[in-house]
Fold this protein.
Amino acid sequence: MVARLLASPLLLGGPGDIVASFFFFSIIFLIVQSYRLKRSLFILFVAIAALTFALDTALTMTWISIDAITPTLLTISLIYALFFGSATLLILRGIVRTSRVTMDTVRGGICVYLLLGYFWAVLYIIVETLDPQAFSSPLLVDNTSTQMIYYSFVTLTTLGFGDIVPVSPMASTLTILEALLGQLYPTIFMGVLVGVYVASRDRSGG
């Protein structure tokens, strides 16, 4: 996920967009691996992820007819939202149920934070696809996914540069919810998690 963020400036247009899509496919593949599914279900979910990557590639290469662009983009976005959302919940459930906080637990909490940014980015893409006037910035005409990932993490970290502004009620509501999560999750949940980890490490003598 971090690699996808760092590579974003270099992955604009043509082959770069395909590489960006492959990053998403790789993230989803790792998410599916963490589900610990039966082999048949694992193959099914990987096939869905591969189909999504193929649709994303076809969309990038303009192999999709104009009439099918919106349904295809919505399908891709909904599948991404399903994977990112379910992974976030599964990791959170694992963290809450753990009896001992380790560094892996803390890393899981960090992964949840990053997944929240990606999950909200996909939600913004869905909103913008259904309502092209949902956001104020003309930057959304091209490279929508890159701009939405940028906007999502700017909102999640409560930076609020103001270059992209929500206009529609749904976009505004999602922005408010993400900003609240961006404030509460690190300060409360991650703060408690790290505090418990440090305390348990001190009790065990480092």
Q: What stands out?
A: The domain at 2-201 is CATH 1.10.287.70 (Helix Hairpins). The two ends are 30 Å apart (CA to CA).
